[in-house]
Amino acid sequence: MNVLKFGGTSVANAENIKLTANIIAKKAKEDRLVVVVSALSGVTDLLLSASKKASDKDAAYKEIVAEIEKKHLFAIKELIPVNDQSAMLSHVKRIINHLETLLDGCFLLGELSDRTSDTIIGFGELLSSCIIAETLKQQIPDAAYKDSRELIKTNNQFGKAIVNFAESNLLIHNYFDTHDSSVTVIPGFIASSSDGHNTTLGRGGSDYTAAIVAAALHSKQLEIWTDVNGMYTANPRIVKQAHPIETISYQEAMELSHFGAKVLYPPTIQPVLNKNIPILIKNTFEPEAEGTLISATAKESENPVKGISHIDNITLITLEGSGIIGVSGSSKRLFGTLSNENINVIFITQASSEHTICIGIQNSDAEKAKIAIDKAFEVEISQSKINPCTVEKNLCIVALVGESMKNHQGLSGKMFSTLGKNNVNIRAIAQGASERNISVVINERDVKKALNTLHERFFEDNTKQLNLFVMGVGNVGEKFMDQIHQQKKFLKENRKINLRVIAISNSRKMHFDEDGMPLKDWKESLENGETADKQTFISRVKALNLRNSIFVDITANEEVSKTYDQYLEENIAVVTCNKIACASAYENYSHLKNLSRKFNAPFLFETNVGAGLPIIDTLKHMIASGDKVHKIQAVLSGSLNFIFNNFKENNNFHDVVKEAGVQGFTEPDPKIDLSGVDVARKILILIRESGYEMEIEDIDNESFLPKECLDTQSVPDFFTSLIKHESHFNALYKNAVAKNSRLKYVAKFENGKASVGLQLIEPSHPFYNLEGKDNIVLFYTDRYVDQPLLIKGAGAGAAVTASGIFADVIRIGNV
Ligand code: ADP
Ligand code: ASP
Ligand code: MG
């Protein structure tokens, strides 16, 4: 004998029922079968809603009944040969009429007792099972139908009745001993009490029906056919990377299902465990997939963690006060009270000081529990020995489950640090004495992030997903997107970094794709995107609440630079090539650095100085290892170096500046480079990163530009002024040539003072031969006393800047 159970989606409509029938027909060739079926997908919910409406005196319940009727009649027409249809149609109509009569009664009385509710919500299985039995007759002529209310007996605890196994086992035995159909279809979920009332086994209870029958008949296996390829390492709807577990022990499966793995109704395991009957979970829509085998002898796997599950809608109730200490029986009273109120306790922790007891229950029980507990401890509360209990709603329990977790140290540490790094606040912790389970209570809004990071940590070979939110896709931004596109596969395969771009924005448009956008047509997606808005952008990034989120600023915009704090505070990393924030008031710079530390969110801006050159990173390592910077000398403007390297007798200053712009070496407004403001910002950032406090105003900046050029108000005016003052620039050049020197724009820091300006550099100086748009920095430190540490290379250009931003992103991936 083999017992097969098909869930709601497996029998959702005629098309799916045909798939189900084929599986049954194939299996029937091997063994006698009992087939347990659920209601058509969604029908139990429709019945619940109809009964609620009827008892609320809302006549709309009639529409729901009509919808239910339509679904079933449609299925009959599709599944059953025309000649045999009328009997089934009238049978179903009779059932529907009966349902309607009951609902009319609820409507007239404005009332719905638990007992009536159980009768009403059982109609889904009554309807589905008779249609499926009739459908099967085409392939298996002796297919029979049996009403499980005549086989499974329970008490009168409506909604989730307790099974009387002795009585049920006898009835099941008697029936199957005296009937020998090759296939018998029975409705899941429904049963009846010993005194004849209809009962149900709890939501999802068809699995349980199948287990009860399998255990009673000592079947060789129990097969649960559903819509996924088995029991997964985490809920596959929330964790895309989750995968089916090949084999798992009864205890592990029980733990996972108790903690929310809906694929198996928790009570299902007990009856089959006692008889050592394995459970096989299979997918109706992919029958060739292996599925999950639950048995007493699950294979030992290398990974001590078997799965991660979670329960939503949790409320934490905390009872606290000195009155709890030493008063024997406090917990007995607490749990007694909850039990009297029929409140299911899902989670318990008690501080070892015994000062507080903390329990997790369902949100829907919260009010009832608070009233009952405060009443039970009324006397202690009035004497201020115990505080009125506190109630925190909308939480969620996340549990790591695995039999051999007890043999491994440090798993809980790993769990907590993974959550901590992603700023998931842990409200309470419990570890079962069996150590088969470590569970934490967190905020519901963090659940997706928590499940995904934990899954990544425990099941994905340390692959790290980075979620990028990119603002600014101009010259540099475009190169950045191209580089990600090129490197994505390599990074995933070789560095275990899964880079995803979730959002992009320019000043006009923005586009979000929660699953990571296809990188080859990001431009098109952006063009078709919604109107850009910085604040909406931030709200969306926050609401998505994805793990390892990184905001990437590739603008030169001051407003954007003012939003970093809002990201960092949410534990979202900031990577930026925009210098404005780090060169703003020292207070703001240090505030951002503090936020980064406090919220464990990297704030990286390597490209603020020297484009892609590893200057800031090197400096950071030097300082962290105890070195101290005394003096910095640098050429930090790729654009000014390009301009003065190309400015010769045979061209004019204006044209060279224009060309630098065309090649992307200057800021959009070239005056920012030529006035020295940009270089001043850069040296300021190096000074601050060296550990000194300084403001931009403290930096001497004697401009080589005539005042009139400096005072211009627009980019075109600035260029015009360069033409006007051509002789001034020619004179600068001639003077340099006369002195056998070259013009270099130099930034300096020494003895606490900083300056930027154009200088004549003699041939012996390391700056003399600085080519093209290169940058050079000399650091004189405790360790580099006579010979400075020198970093030199291309210091401007879209591609190197983009690669510098990329490097910062990868740094975060490597943390
Ligand atoms: P059925 O109607 O077949 O009984 P259910 O909806 O009750 O199916 O259970 C299957 C669903 O359980 C899956 O579609 C999936 O969304 C959900 N689920 C939650 N956690 C898990 C898990 N760990 N493994 C597999 N499925 C899970
Ligand atoms: N139809 C019932 C429910 O939706 C039982 C089941 O599907 O297992 O809860
Ligand atoms: Mg189910």
UniProtKB/TrEMBL annotation:
GO molecular function, one term: aspartate kinase activity
Record-linked CDD domains: AAK_AK-HSDH-like, ACT_AKi-HSDH-ThrA-like_1, ACT_AKi-HSDH-ThrA_2
Entry superkingdom: Bacteria
Annotated signal sequence range: none
Domain ACT as annotated: residue spans: 400-478
UniProt GO BP: homoserine biosynthetic process; lysine biosynthetic process via diaminopimelate; methionine biosynthetic process; threonine biosynthetic process
Cofactor(s) the protein requires to work: a metal cation
InterPro entries reported in the protein's UniProt record: AceGlu_kinase-like_sf, ACT-like_dom_sf, ACT_Aspartokinase, ACT_dom, AK-HD, Asp/Glu/Uridylate_kinase, Asp/hSer_DH_NAD-bd, Asp_kinase
Entries under SUPFAM superfamilies matching the protein: ACT-like, Carbamate kinase-like, Glyceraldehyde-3-phosphate dehydrogenase-like, C-terminal domain, NAD(P)-binding Rossmann-fold domains
The entry's keywords: Amino-acid biosynthesis, ATP-binding, Kinase, Lysine biosynthesis, Metal-binding, Methionine biosynthesis, Multifunctional enzyme, NAD, NADP, Nucleotide-binding, Oxidoreductase, Sodium, Threonine biosynthesis, Transferase
Metabolic or biological pathway: Amino-acid biosynthesis; L-methionine biosynthesis via de novo pathway; L-homoserine from L-aspartate: step 1/3; Amino-acid biosynthesis; L-lysine biosynthesis via DAP pathway; (S)-tetrahydrodipicolinate from L-aspartate: step 1/4; Amino-acid biosynthesis; L-methionine biosynthesis via de novo pathway; L-homoserine from L-aspartate: step 3/3; Amino-acid biosynthesis; L-threonine biosynthesis; L-threonine from L-aspartate: step 3/5
Catalytic reaction list: L-homoserine + NAD(+) = L-aspartate 4-semialdehyde + NADH + H(+); L-homoserine + NADP(+) = L-aspartate 4-semialdehyde + NADPH + H(+); L-aspartate + ATP = 4-phospho-L-aspartate + ADP
Entry similarity comment: In the C-terminal section; belongs to the homoserine dehydrogenase family.
NCBIfam families according to UniProt: asp_kinases (TIGR00657), PRK09436.1 (NF006959)
Quaternary structure and interacting proteins, as annotated: Homotetramer.
PANTHER family in the cross-refs: HOMOSERINE DEHYDROGENASE, PTHR43070
Role according to the record: Bifunctional aspartate kinase and homoserine dehydrogenase that catalyzes the first and the third steps toward the synthesis of lysine, methionine and threonine from aspartate.
Protein name from the UniProt record: Aspartate kinase
Organism: Flavobacterium noncentrifugens
